Automatic annotation (TrEMBL):
Belongs to the nitronate monooxygenase family. NMO class I subfamily. The keyword Transmembrane does not apply. The keyword GTP-binding does not apply. Its cofactor is FMN. This is Nitronate monooxygenase. SUPFAM superfamilies: Inosine monophosphate dehydrogenase (IMPDH). GO terms for molecular function: nitronate monooxygenase activity. It comes from the Eukaryota. Keywords: Flavoprotein, FMN, Monooxygenase, Oxidoreductase.
């Protein structure tokens, strides 16, 4: 698939993935991923910062012929959810929830700037120069995949990328979302099951109406409908080579995407907390970022859940996320973090090993050698 040695994609994992992690996966024969959701595409230097990441990625490759074997990931959520700044009431509610969680640390000076600006914002409001420059940059570097989470980009974006030999993938959490994405002409569907760590990518249904389909059920539904014409890639709860082999044996499945399995590798940005707390379960929570995400249910997260049992109206996605990150720094305790991980976390591989070593273990398991 896509000329890869092994049909294994690395999950983008914003905030955890690094260029070294992406290049290690690509060097090993898979598809490395570079998360770009944190880049504010409206900024004058945004496009050059992406160029810098791509150049760095290439510099870490063993073979220049692998330079296209990468997935660039953007967030494409509905821009209207970030249209209005937080109200005074929302900010007050946020402090009610988070002040006790941060052991009553003074959060009065925490600000709420917008972060994680949607790709849709660039498409619809520009600057047009940045949009054109980004498409030109992508046409120049021609990554094999450009993927979108939380939604589908414009037809212009899809057509521009795919006319330059770049396959557009979209994360879907339901058959309806898969049908919508397919109707726009994308070439790949990443089937994000409910087991998956990180932000839930649903974009047609609200969280309350989300079926919470498992990776297996979702993949079967989507592969049956689109497996003969599109790339179908399951993601969520895939923690070893036997899981990979099982999914690849399903009719219509092209590859798998794995992320949590690489959390404890030396190339990831996760701190030592996860290595010491393999016993922790995961949970879904929206209070941290403003969008539902699966993370470790740490004592800190337990406190946030308890403090927000009444489901208070908090600042929108992006605003509340930036405030949370500032609060973590201000409070000075990195254990009060937002440790995104899938339900397979307790059987995490790595223990500080290199990503290439973990990848090879997956391959050996997949081939039945382990």
């Amino acid at each position: 698939m896509l000329g890869l040695k092994y049909p294994i994609f690395q999950s983008p994992m914003a905030g955890i993935s690094t260029i070294k992690l992406a290049s290690a996966i690509t060097n090993s024969g898979g598809l490395g991923a570079i998360p770009l959701a944190a880049v504010d595409l409206r900024n004058p230097d945004a496009i050059e910062s992406i160029r810098g990441q791509l150049d760095s990625f290439r510099s870490h490759l063993d073979n220049p012929e692998l330079s296209r074997n990468v997935n660039l990931n953007f967030f494409c959520h509905d821009r209207s959810i970030q249209a209005s700044s937080p109200t005074a009431k929302q900010i007050a509610n946020w402090k009610t929830v988070f002040t006790p969680a941060f052991n009553n640390h003074d959060l009065s000076k925490i600000e709420f700037p917008i972060s994680n600006v949607s790709f849709q914002e660039l498409e619809e409001s520009g600057p047009q120069k940045n949009y054109n420059s980004l498409l030109e940059l992508l046409a120049e570097y021609r990554p094999k995949v450009v993927s979108f989470h939380f939604g589908v980009p414009s037809q212009k974006t899809i057509d521009s990328l795919q006319s330059n030999g770049i396959d557009v993938f979209v994360s879907v959490t339901s058959l309806a979302e898969a049908k919508f994405a397919a109707s726009k002409g994308v070439r790949g569907l990443t089937c994000q099951g409910f087991e998956a760590g990180g932000h839930r990518g649903n974009f047609l249904e609200s969280t309350s109406n989300d079926e919470n389909l498992s990776t297996y059920v979702l993949t079967n539904l989507v592969a049956r409908e689109f497996g003969k014409q599109l790339y179908v890639v399951p993601a969520g709860g895939i923690m070893n080579g036997r899981d990979i082999d099982n999914y690849l044996s399903l009719p219509g499945v092209s590859a798998v995407q794995v992320g949590t399995v690489f959390l404890d590798t030396k190339e990831s940005l996760s701190n030592g907390y996860i290595s010491k707390h393999r016993e922790l379960p995961t949970t879904m929570i929206s209070s941290i970022s403003g969008k539902t995400a699966r993370c470790l249910r740490t004592p800190f997260i337990e406190s946030v859940i308890k403090n927000n049992k009444d489901d208070l109206d908090l600042p929108p996605y992006g605003y509340t996320y930036s405030a949370f990150k500032s609060a973590v720094k201000a409070a000075g305790n990195p254990d009060n973090g937002f440790f995104l991980a899938g339900q397979g976390f307790p059987v995490l591989k790595g223990n500080g090993a290199g990503a290439a070593e973990v990848f090879q273990e997956l391959v050996d398991e997949m081939k039945g050698k382990l």
